[in-house]
Give the backbone structure.
Amino acid sequence: MFCTLATAARAQDAIHRCVDAHGNPLFTDQPCPSQLASPAPAPTSSLAPPGAPVPLQRCAATAAELRQRVIDAFAAHDPNRLAGLMLWGSYGNSSTTGDLRALAQLVRQPLLEIHFDNESAAGLPAPASSAAPPAKELQLRTDDGGNAGFAITHEAGCLWLRQMD
């Protein structure tokens, strides 16, 4: 009896990584076919051998580091990398799911331009009379003509992205 309960409990704790019919990632406690989705392919990386632990990543401490991590997320077409740069507190489940889908769609496009609000569109510092204020927004332009903007939040010595209202 205990074996049956333990097996059932472990099966309920499993998270299934799926891809829906539109190519959107889906994480669920149900098998993928029951959600009209297919199992997601196993992640591969040219940087580490299969089965190697993923190294812990520290948060972005500088604007230059934050910019480079966003560029890297687009280069890898990886919405999870972009989501890892975001501060997710106080989000509800439905808005988080919608935001994750939007990030997945965003990183599918080639990134044409990235700049902070205190820079010109070319990524050069804006002319300043004394010292430029810290950036409050990060602006992106993608190949499909879309523009995206993220607010920048400073917390615990890190720079985080937040969806703009």
Observations:
- The longest strand covers residues 147-155.
- The radius of gyration is 19 Å.
